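INFO  loader      accepted 1 record
INFO  loader      residues=238
INFO  predictor   begin
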Amino acid sequence: MKKIIYLLIFVLNSYCFQAQEIKNSAVITYNVTCSTPFIKKDTIIKKGETTVSKETINQANMILLTAKDVKATLKFNSKESLYQVDWNLNDEIGNSNFTRVFAGGNNKYYYNIDNHEFLIQSSLLGKSHIISHKPLMWKILDEKKQIGKYHCTKAVAKRTETSKKISFYAWFCPDIPVPFGPLEFRNLPGLVVEGKFLHVTFNLEKIDWNESEIDIKKPIDGEQISFKEYQKLINNSW
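INFO  predictor   done
INFO  writer      dumping tokens
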């Protein structure tokens, strides 16, 4: 009986030690990559009465092929998170980096655990908007994968945008039980270590844990609109 008690004490102490390693606040760096090309050469794209030529598609693919990896930062505390792509003046001035665009551009993505509030702060045509957005509804699969030192589980979700369904794939770590991740990769029972949608991949690069609670500022500057209204504004701006 004593041996069993000692074993239980050892296991509990080990568990407590591991739990202490997971703090409430952290700053996470993701490396974002973009695979190319997006557009097939034989694809014909129409917008209204305008047909995009193969030459234009080839030029677009050349821009995509020169896309560089970008860094993005996710900050979170015990209740909130804020994600945005890092700004690098030397890399961005004079360049059209599509990786940056698909990684989030200049937008800020805010999430609140308590009320599941998901907001996107974006600027379009020189005007700031606060877009209310519903978190993705994830389906957790049985697939497991080791990513570096993290034991991860796979989850998938779909969202319909402009009549097209977009699939999201996430690998989250249940050992780090926080529902945060980059962009829309959140609301899962573990930190997102790897995420992918379309041809964009987010890979966790490092975690800097904080002893004290990080201050997260909720985006408030801008006209409040729904995601559908925001999509209409984007379509009309073309």
